Amino acid sequence: MPLLIINDFGLKPVRAPEDEDFRDLIAERYERTSTVLTSNLDFTQWGDAFATNKMPGAATLDRLRHAAYRVVLDGESYRVPRPMPESNNSALAKGDRNKDY
Q1: How crowded is residue 37: how many other Cβ atoms within 10 Å of its Cβ?
Q2: pLDDT in tens, 37-76
Q3: How distant, in Å, are the alpha carbons of 16, 29, 30, 33, 82 from that of 56?
């Protein structure tokens, strides 16, 4: 089985029936092949991602944590906000109706 990468885990709550589907997916891959999860949540918050039924969440997290490597990246975001370009529309938004467009 190829590597599975799940990006932004916990961005939205995992609700039924998707929580059981996710548990089944992880259980099927457990100790057979590699899975990578990325998340902006600390690992201690991953359980909160399972909104309604905590049991599938606990079983899933138990399998994910077993023999896992955890890489924590800490620092400034690579997505530094860029300054918004000034345009004629910005003057209009500020209420400058006397400006010639």
Answers
A1: 16
A2: 999 888 888 888 887 777 778 889 999 889 889 898 888 8
A3: 10, 15, 15, 20, 41
Helix axes 54-65, 18-29, angle to 10 degrees: 20
Tokens of 89: 């529309």
Distances (CA, A) of 99 to 65, 91, 93: 61, 8, 12
Q: What are phi and psi of 37, to 5 degrees?
A: -115, 135
The residue behind tokens 């099927």 is 28
pLDDT in tens, 83-98: 888 766 555 555 555 5
